[in-house]
Amino acid sequence: MCTRYVSPDAAAIERHWQVGRGSAWRGGEVFPNYPGAFVRAARDRLAPEREFVLGQWSLIPWFAKERKLRFPTANARSEELAAKASYKQPWARGQRCVIPAWAFFEPNWESGRHVPWIFRRADGLPWGLAGLWNTWADPSSGEIVESYTMLTINADAHPLMRRMHRPDPKRAPELQDKRSVIPIEAADVDEWLFAPPAQARALLRTAPTECFDAAPQPTPARAGGADPADS
Known about the structure:
Elements: E1 5-7, H1 10-17, E2 28-30, E3 35-41, E4 50-57, E5 75-77, H2 88-92, E6 96-101, E7 103-108, E8 115-121, E9 127-137, E10 144-154, E11 179-181, H3 189-194, H4 197-200, E12 212-216
Parallel strand pairs: 4-10, 5-10
Antiparallel strand pairs: 1-2, 1-7, 3-4, 3-6, 6-9, 7-8, 8-12, 9-10, 10-11
């Protein structure tokens, strides 16, 4: 599961995804339960149009009594969207979005310890990661909160993504349920945002290995010049 990514700023999102100005979003690293940017189908428009939105990264389902949830919703398994209580309503309603990211991070455990890897696109462009959004009204205050979740898919057969995440010793190598984010290519964005759910589901797939520029995240040097990797 992905729990950290780097968002482009508002200008880069508006330029790459061809949306009108949405906010003074500065971009940077995004973590669950903190604000992030996403692109969705504009609401209350007669013609299909994209919309820039800021919301909480961790979807708040319609049945939530308070904003702070007792269960994680930053990531959603794409195989469970039609059945999972938190996601089945947004999925059925076509509340899909694209989450802009210059890079995302995943843990590699091949050395026996957590080594963060950074994943960029090989072509230098930003990722557009598949997500779902929801608008929730706080029953106690009436506050309207936008939120979103990042979709994932099984990556046990993917040459690169199957190397990520801590292995489960109770599962066979081919049944680990390693997960990957789901990139939506620029040519597929309108289909993802506007098509019926059955048609959009065909876009739920892993990206080819050659799309990735992936490597262990460089370890920053300590103050005074000592690199922790040398100790």
